[in-house]
Amino acid sequence: MNSPSLAERAAQATPAPIARRMRGLSDRAIAWLFIAPTMLLLLAINIFPLIWTVRLSFTNFRANRPNAEVLGLGIDHYVSILTDPDIWGPMQATAHFLFWTITLQTLIGFTLAYLIDRKFRGHGFWTTLILIPMMLSPAVVGNFWAFLYQPQIGLFNYAVSFFTGIPPSSFEMLGSVKLAPWAIVIVDTWMWTPYVMLICLAGLRSIPDYIYEAAEVDRASPWRQFWSITLPMVLPFVMLAVLFRGIENFKMFDLVNLLTNGGPGSTTEVVSITLKREAFEKWRTGYSSALAIILFVAVFGLANIYVKALNAVKNR
Questions:
Q1: pLDDT digits (tens, 9 = 90+) for 256-267
Q2: 186, 108 in Cβ contact below 8 A?
Q3: In angstroms, rounded to a whole number, what is the distance separating the alpha carbons of residues 233 and 210?
Q4: Residue 192 in contact with residue 229, Cβ under 8 Å?
Q5: How far from the centroid of its chain's Cα atoms is residue 283's Cα?
Q6: Residue 117: is its pLDDT beyond 60?
Q7: What share of the chain is helix, strand, coil (3-state, %, to 5)?
Q8: CA distances (Å), 122 to each of 119, 129, 312, in order?
Q9: CA-to-CA distance for 159 and 211, rounded, in angstroms?
Q10: 155, 148 contact by CB (below 8 A)
Q11: How many angstroms separate the CA atoms of 272 and 249, rounded?
């Protein structure tokens, strides 16, 4: 006996007048009928702010003067941003932050995943312990590390002093032009390496055991198995982790704002901090909207190129 279709089951659970109309619909139409309200809501939440931001980027609108006359400026804001030499400082700070955080998180995360995948005694406990930083709020992490970086009482400075002999009071991570960028890299790596580890661990666990068994029959060494089996098969997962962390770190704001607020000077002023200053300190809403759209297009374009590369790796 054939089971009732989706349309028939939906019709049985609805009032008679509506049920009669639904019996004439296909399963696909019924499915779209149920998910359409949610999709429309998600589109409204995501698309409307984007369209509104694009509109504001072509005007001189200022949020602190909502009743002032709004003039259309065309692409003046975009030309001003792209030809402004001062914007390249935040871009360089963002690039430095992106490169080192993604590199360190990928290397450490993959190494941790590879070790945990060995399933040694107590690996479940250590896995849970490693995941704790990822579960914390960025606000909590920022304040916690700001305390650790304190020159007088910070435990981080005492740990560095123990290994280097430098007095803790003379070692100031957040106040040093050279060390402040690395202080943020350390915090973000500590917080998000477990995320990369989880994705890499999922890739390692997806490799069938019979492949390793066949390699052992062929007398392949562990090193050969790693380079010929493990790394190629887990590479798409590693690239996926890099994609997710790259998108998130490009727009990262919380940790930088809490730890340094772009200082000392403008050493750690990433693009998101510049955007905040333009929008909520200088109240140049139209200008900041144009900057936000430029960043969106840059991230969207780079992500699309990266996804094509990821698909090419998966389809090899």
A1: 999 999 888 889
A2: no
A3: 14
A4: no
A5: 27
A6: yes
A7: 75, 0, 25
A8: 8, 11, 38
A9: 45
A10: yes
A11: 10
Task: Dump the DSSP string for 17-66.
Answer: HHHHHHTTS-HHHHHHHHHHHHHHHHHHHHHHHHHHHHHHTTB---TT-T
Tokens of 90: 């935040």
Contact between 287 and 77 (Cβ < 8 Å): yes
180-193: pLDDT as tens digits = 999 999 999 999 99
Instruction: Extract the tokens encoding 178.
Output: 């050279």
Write the DSSP symbol of residue 72.
B
Instruction: Give 259-262 contacts, CB < 8 A, sequence gap 24+.
Output: 259/142, 259/145, 259/146, 259/149, 259/174, 259/183, 259/184, 259/187, 260/174, 260/180, 260/183, 260/184
Burial of 199: CB neighbours in 10 Å, binned 0-12, 13-18, 19+: buried
Taking each helix axis from N to C end, the angle separating 180-205 and 138-148, rounded to the nearest 10 degrees, works out to 130
Tokens of 10: 């939906």
pTM for this structure? 0.84
Superfamily of domain 78-314: MetI-like (1.10.3720.10)
- Taking the C-alpha atoms of residue 301 and residue 58, their distance in angstroms, rounded to an integer, is 21
Per the CB < 8 A criterion, the answer to whether 151 and 174 are in contact is no
**Backbone CA torsion sign across 241, 138, 100, 197:** negative
**Domain residue extents for the chain:** 6-56, 78-314
